[in-house]
Specification:
The chain has one domain: Trna Endonuclease, Chain: A, domain 1 (3-Layer(aba) Sandwich), CATH 3.40.1350. The protein has a five-stranded mixed β-sheet, sandwiched between helices. The termini are far apart. The chain is of the alpha/beta class. Strand 1 and strand 2 form a beta hairpin. Helices cover 35% and strands 21% of the residues. The protein is elongated.
Length: 159
């Protein structure tokens, strides 16, 4: 026997009940699985010298924003944001810059973008516009991170 949603509501009403229907997503119980995977890939390439803190909130009462990771070693501090899908590069980068500014603006800013054909294409489309803001090449970033030293500037890497 099949029961339509309309019929179920009517039957419940006759019995003095209120029917509630819920839908649950299929797949992994965690919504940010892709971001966690990119974060794992990124962390696997870090040198052991780094102290890593996950989900670091801004020190502004009532502000719910947080950096995905903060790397620190001595006086060096790197604020890391992980993007799984570049959908509106300008808006996403603006939000990251605002968060960095509101945190006090110290340290380096590193944007980690998950590897995908879409993201590579999106980065290629905006690369020339971001050279001044993110001047450090991926090669130099990975070398600095492996050795536990300062990046020398802000950067974007793909993992």
């Amino acid at each position: 026997m099949t029961l339509s949603l309309d019929a179920a509501v009517r039957y419940a009403s006759v019995l003095g009940l209120r029917l509630r229907v819920r839908a649950y997503p299929l797949g992994a119980p965690v919504r940010d699985v892709a971001q966690l995977a990119a974060t794992r890939r990124f962390r696997s390439r870090l040198g052991e010298e780094w102290h890593v803190t996950l989900e670091v909130p801004l020190a502004i009462p009532g502000d719910l924003r947080a950096f995905d990771l903060v790397l620190h070693r001595g006086a060096v501090r790197i604020y890391v944001e992980v993007i799984t899908r570049l959908t509106d590069a300008q808006a996403q980068l603006r939000a990251i810059h605002l968060k960095h500014r509101d945190s006090g603006g110290g340290g380096r800013l590193l944007v980690v973008v998950a590897e995908s054909k879409h993201n590579r294409h999106a980065l290629g489309a905006v690369r020339g516009l971001m050279c001044d803001e993110f001047p450090v090449s991926s090669r130099l970033v990975w070398a600095a991170l492996a050795e536990g030293r300062d990046l020398g500037g802000n950067a974007i890497v793909v993992v």
